[in-house]
Amino acid sequence: MHHFTQGKPTRQGHKGIPEGHYEEEQGLKGFFGPVSHLIKKQPSTRWTEIDGPLKPRMFDLVKLDRSSGSQRLLFNKSVAIHMSFVDVYSPEQATSMRNADADLLYFCHKGSGEVFTEYGLLNYTSGQYIVIPRCLQHTIFPAEMSEFFVVENKTSHYEEPERGLVGRHAIYDINALIKPDLELQHQRLKELQLSVTEIAVKRLEAITRFRYDDCVYADVVGWKGDLYPFTLHMDHMMPLMSHRAHLPPSAHTTFVARDFVVCTFLPRPLEKDKDALKVPFYHQNIDYDEVLFYHDGDFFSRDNLHAGMMSFHPQGFPHGPHPKAVQSVDSKTETSEYAVMVDTRWPLEVDPGIQPTESVEYWKSWRG
Ligand SMILES: [Fe+2]
Known about the structure:
Number of domains: 2
Shape: elongated
CATH superfamily of the largest domain: Jelly Rolls
CATH topology of the largest domain: Jelly Rolls
Bound molecules: fe (ii) ion
Structural class: mainly beta
Largest sheet: 7 strands, antiparallel
CATH class of the largest domain: Mainly Beta
Distance between the termini: 32 Å
Number of strands: 23
């Protein structure tokens, strides 16, 4: 449809909003699609009650039982999000896994270690994404207790975002994607005397075990191609910013899938123009659910928020700058939050297993 205006709109989104008024963005496709900005006298978060399933929700994943190994958090037909805990184990206990249901994105929230793959060795530390395409076998071998926020991509493959005008070295340089090291892996297999002889394959949620007499990682002498596991660390990402107007979350897209996107929020200076919004604008993601995992940093914009928590904002829930953020932003010149966002095209369901971790009063904190 063609661009159209009525009444007294602003000239530039997220900027020059008349005193005492609020800008609300209503858009499709997360922040990528058709969009309108409404200038309102009152924010849409001035509800007195929300009665029904569209309440925003917050879960304290620090409360999850680490001995459980893994807990599904949220899911739909195209994506499943888990928290996974891998403790240190001896080389004799190592097994390999393949996920035939999904491409895997591990985000290391805590810990460090190695990942053995047929393509070579990958190392990880806190803040690192590890991408394992569907059905590629891998063994996570932690150097210390490791916690992962895991996103299973069931209907497509992880791709890099379109960088468009800013070129292929923006957001993160393609050289920041770390490839597996085959030579190093052979060396580490020897040092650890690691011999992985079992592969557990997950397909349609059922496990099939393949057993071998020799190590399933020791037989590859070389490979070529454009399908392989890789890592990307938050420290090697270069967030886009505009000093004049607030950029939408889509500017921070890290990976794109058919039915969802993964964005990374990193420390950055706040906007400098006096009339620029310095906090997230009021918006309704009309057709996307929003999940935010808080990894690290100072979450100045919220009360009672700490690393390891996850918020879930269902589509259609109008929200904006958190009231606490509006109060404290004037004293800030930068944000120091590290967070991972998963925006999904289709509605997510909450796994009943995480209900004990829910902060049930969270939705009330949004009342404007
Ligand atoms: Fe949002």
